[in-house]
Amino acid sequence: MSQSPSREAILFCRYILSSLDRLVHCLDGLDETQLNWHPPVPHANSLYALVAHTLGNAEENLLWTLFDQPSQRNREQEFLMEGSSTDTLILRWNGLREQLQQALLSLSSQDLAREHLHPRRGSITGLDILIVVARHAAEHLGQAELTRDLALAATPQ
Question: What is the pTM of this model?
Answer without folding.
Answer: 0.93
